[in-house]
From TrEMBL:
<protein>
    <submittedName>
        <fullName>Protein CBG24290</fullName>
    </submittedName>
</protein>
<feature type="region of interest" description="Disordered">
    <location>
        <begin position="285"/>
        <end position="316"/>
    </location>
</feature>
Length: 316
């Protein structure tokens, strides 16, 4: 059995405030942190809805963004290749990370609650801890509250997320290299036009002159053009490596936060409050328990209400 490792690198920027739990500093800055957090959440909510499409320059609802790209390129007479960069950029946004994180947690929570309701369903529950099927049927992994399963699923998902980001950077680099090559080609065409005007005749001598000029030009620019490409690539590799490392630290900070939030006892408590005291009390509990919104399955949907009823029957 392989237990995934959750990286423990210090968080960057504002996440520090929530992740570091540095006692004294936290007390002193409590108000400032609360204000910063409110501002951040407000901003997050505002940004949550749309994403700008750089092909048509329109704001597109995020849930429709991926489906929007190809038809948009077609309508705007662009090659489908033009959708690749926006696609991988979008796939590696923090928004998508949150969505995927939420989906994993939601799935594991529902599976787990199902088992609380009906032990027979344990065979359907995701498991990374039990060594044999019988151990699992016996519920040996239940006390772990799916923490380990969550870490494993999250680890896989984060790897994929970073892979999307890497693809995004690679595609950007390719495009920029293509643009440099195109600029070199344009210079050649410009020179060719001039030369053709200077030697317009349709005879062997003129043709020889033209070819000689083309050759001279090629020889003259070969070295500086190659140098330009090499310099660009060295710069891009360095710059993208730096961006990749930054993204990785960001994602790791999210991972550490999420690992801390995966607490099914609290989710069950949340659901009980929701059942007994209503939506407002549950939201209060949610806010005071979890530093970011949407950490528990949406209690307004029908499936969740079903589980609430189930837990009610079991725990009353
Ligand atoms: Zn568009
Ligand atoms: Zn198990
Ligand atoms: Zn990769």
């Amino acid at each position: 059995m392989e237990i995934p490792e959750i990286p423990n690198i210090p968080a960057q920027g504002f996440l520090n405030n929530f992740l570091q739990g540095d006692g004294e500093a936290e007390e002193i800055n409590e108000q400032a942190v609360a204000q910063a957090r409110d501002a951040m959440l407000r901003q997050a909510r505002q940004q949550v809805d749309t994403e700008i499409c750089l092909i048509c320059n329109q704001d597109i609802v995020r849930t429709e963004f991926l489906d929007h790209l190809e038809p948009c390129a077609q309508q705007n007479g662009k090659d489908v290749k033009e959708t690749h960069i926006p696609k991988y950029r979008f796939l590696s946004t923090n928004y998508m990370l949150d969505q995927k994180m939420f989906a994993i947690r939601d799935e594991l929570e529902i599976e787990f609650l199902e088992v609380l309701w009906d032990k027979e369903t344990v065979h359907k529950m995701h498991c990374v801890l039990c060594k044999t099927y019988n151990e699992h049927l016996n519920g040996d992994c239940v006390p772990n509250l799916q923490k380990q399963a969550f870490l494993q699923k999250m680890d896989q998902m984060l790897n994929l997320h970073m892979c999307y980001y890497e693809t995004h950077l690679e595609l950007k680099k390719e495009r920029e290299i293509e643009q440099i090559r195109q600029a070199h080609e344009n210079e050649f065409e410009k020179m060719k036009k001039e030369v053709d005007q200077r030697f317009p005749s349709d005879n062997v001598i003129a043709e020889q002159n033209r070819q000689a000029e083309y050759r001279d030009f090629r020889e003259r620019v070969a070295e500086p053009n190659a140098k330009e490409l090499q310099e660009y690539m060295a710069h891009a590799n360095e710059e993208y490596r730096r961006q990749y490392e930054f993204k990785k630290r960001q994602v790791e900070a999210v991972a550490r936060r999420e690992a801390g939030l995966m607490d099914l006892n609290k989710v069950i408590e949340y659901r009980k409050i929701l059942r007994d005291q209503g939506w407002e009390a549950a939201e209060e509990f949610d806010k005071s328990t979890f530093p970011t919104p949407q950490n528990v399955p949406d209690a307004r949907n029908e499936e969740t209400r079903k589980w609430l009823g189930a837990i009610g029957r079991r725990q009353d």
